[in-house]
Amino acid sequence: ALPAAAAELPILEQRAFTLERDDGLLARRPSVPVNPQAQVYGVVDNREEGRVRSDLVNNILTRPDSRRRHREAIVRAAVEDNLAGIVLDYDDIDEALGGAWADFVGLLGDDLRRAGKKLVVTVPMPVNAAGEWSAGSVPWRRIGDGADGVRVRLPDGVPLPTADLDSLVQ
């Protein structure tokens, strides 16, 4: 059940869509009506029953037709569901596809903005090695340029010390 407090929040995210196949189309998840005054963002992820389907995202990114269909499906879902925007929360994308991922985000961001919607992209937690943060092959700057917002997927159940968070932001 949706917590009662959610009815009072001005911005909400709903895990509304997932990937079921690698053809670029979306599968809908059941959603619960919320505060009609809230800005609702639909989350699109690649998780199914406790496992990450990186194969689906990777296959979409390697096929131009699937990328185009996926962008169209996301924009259509955002418009039809009257969402404020979309949150892409894809986990475990192949490192070799970082450039294709950033290109996809840039094009999708443009598509959504033309439709009056916003795009937020979740990126993996960077790694701190010898006092330096590294995002590996994730092109954060390009993703940030293509999206309206970027958020970091923090490790589950592992609190980060304030000093680490400050260092990461710096």
What are the main properties of this structure?
single chain; 170 residues; alpha/beta; 6-stranded mixed beta sheet; 10 strands; globular
Q: Can you walk through the features of this model?
A:
A hairpin with a 2-residue loop joins strand 4 (47-48) and strand 5. Helix 3 runs parallel beside helix 4 (140-146). Strands 2-1-3-6-7-10 form a six-stranded mixed sheet, covered by helices on one side. Strands 4-5 form a two-stranded antiparallel ribbon. The longest helix has 17 residues, at 64-80. It has five helices and ten strands. It has 170 residues and is an alpha/beta fold.
Strands ordered across the widest β-sheet: 2-1-3-6-7-10
Strand content: 25-35%
Weakly predicted, low-confidence segments = none
Q: Total number of helical segments? A: 5
What radius of gyration results from the CA coordinates?
16 Å
Q: Helicity level, as a percent range?
A: 25-40%
Global geometry: globular
Largest sheet: 6 strands, mixed
- What's the order of the H and E elements? EEEEEHHEHEEEHEH
Tell me how many strands there are: 10
The whole-number mean of residue pLDDT values reads: 88
